């Protein structure tokens, strides 16, 4: 499978995701945000980081860059798109995913390994996980507090569009296991067609036992064996 | 033409920065304070001479980039 990682000024997880993708046998290309041609891709990844220094709002400036028009076209024709952390923020700013990410409720940048629960495993991104499986994945963000309109929140629940929720090590989803104040502990969501996933946790940091764990591996193996 | 634009979080969206400023002002003994909401301020100059066209363009700037309408409101003033 061919993948493309989009690089913005200020992206800093672009190499990590490229290493993870190549480890999982993707043929990956890095794509600069000023490019207007997207290489043939089965998967486009918008990586984490601080595109444009988070000026204006996280992801707002990157969301209007030249390559975004190509990504929107690819998304509409069914290409798989994964936005991680700042990538999730950028996807909401483009409108490809609804809602937005507010400042963390406690006003602090949070960098720690948290537990998340697989809420929908019947998608191309999550099929290798078990339903309700608990993963330990790193988060590192200042604006991860997911917020959306009530009508969209209903849609997320009714259409099974919530990918992951923050929980404790036993899988309990409540205020105590919510690190950033996100609505209903939401850590990641799909679009209506489920070809786009935006998530705050960093699966690319969890693909090697030597440095962390391998809880992120199945996300990539779901994609490659889709 | 010159405009000033103020972008603020909608009333029902929690504004933690505003809350912290509010609490700090109260701690400083400024007891008459009722509430604080923090926002962003822009000054924008456009070359367009036709007022109606310029107004429309500035509105577009607000809706497409300066404010995120899910969580923010904007107010345009002419300078």
Summarize the structure.
The complex is a heterodimer of chains A (226) and B (79). Chain A is α/β, with parallel strands linked by helices and 226 residues long.
Task: Kindly describe this structure.
The complex is a heterodimer of chains A (226) and B (79). Chain A is of the alpha/beta class and 226 residues long. Chain A has a single domain (2-224), classed as Rossmann fold. In chain A, 21% of the residues lie in helices and 26% in strands. Chain A has five helices and eleven strands, in the order βαββαβαββββαβββα. In chain A, the strands form two sheets. Chain A has a nine-stranded mixed sheet, with helices on both faces. Chain A has a two-stranded antiparallel ribbon with strand order 5-8. In chain A, α1 links the parallel β1 and β2 (27-32). Chain A is globular and about 45 Å long. The termini of chain A are close together. The model of chain A has no long low-confidence stretch (mean pLDDT 97). Chain B is of the alpha+beta class. Chain B has one domain (2-78): Mth169, Chain: A, CATH 3.30.1280.10. Chain B is built from two helices and three strands; from the N terminus they run βαβαβ. The longest helix of chain B is centred in the last third of the chain and has 16 residues, at 51-66. The radius of gyration of chain B is 16 Å and the shape is elongated. The interface between A and B is medium-sized, with 16 and 12 residues.
């Amino acid at each position: 499978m061919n993948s493309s990682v989009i690089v913005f000024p200020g992206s800093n997880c672009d190499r990590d995701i490229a290493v993870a993708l190549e480890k999982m046998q993707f043929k990956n290309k890095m794509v600069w945000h000023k490019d207007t041609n997207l290489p043939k891709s089965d998967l486009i990844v918008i990586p984490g980081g601080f595109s444009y220094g988070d000026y204006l709002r996280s992801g707002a400036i990157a969301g209007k860059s030249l390559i975004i028009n190509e990504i929107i076209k690819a998304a509409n024709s069914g290409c798989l798109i994964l936005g991680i952390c700042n990538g999730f923020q950028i996807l909401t700013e483009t409108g490809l995913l609804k809602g937005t990410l507010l400042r963390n409720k406690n006003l602090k940048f949070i960098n720690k390994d948290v537990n998340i629960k697989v809420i929908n495993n019947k998608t191309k991104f999550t099929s290798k996980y078990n339903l309700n499986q608990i993963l330990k994945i790193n988060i590192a963000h200042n604006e991860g507090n997911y917020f959306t309109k009530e009508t969209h929140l209903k849609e997320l629940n009714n259409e099974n569009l919530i990918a992951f929720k923050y929980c404790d090590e036993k899988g309990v989803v409540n205020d105590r296991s919510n690190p950033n104040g996100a609505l209903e502990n939401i850590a990641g969501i799909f679009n209506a067609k489920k070809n786009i996933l935006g998530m705050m946790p960093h699966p690319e940091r969890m693909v090697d036992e030597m440095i962390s764990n391998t809880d992120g591996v199945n996300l990539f193996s779901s994609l490659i064996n889709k | 033409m010159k405009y000033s634009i103020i972008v603020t979080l909608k009333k029902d969206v929690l504004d933690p920065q505003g809350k912290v400023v509010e609490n700090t002002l109260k701690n400083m003994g400024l007891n008459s304070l009722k509430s604080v909401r923090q926002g962003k301020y822009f000054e924008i100059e456009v070359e367009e001479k036709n007022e109606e066209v310029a107004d429309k363009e500035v509105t577009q700037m607000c809706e497409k980039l300066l404010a995120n309408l899910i969580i923010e409101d904007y107010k345009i003033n002419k300078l």
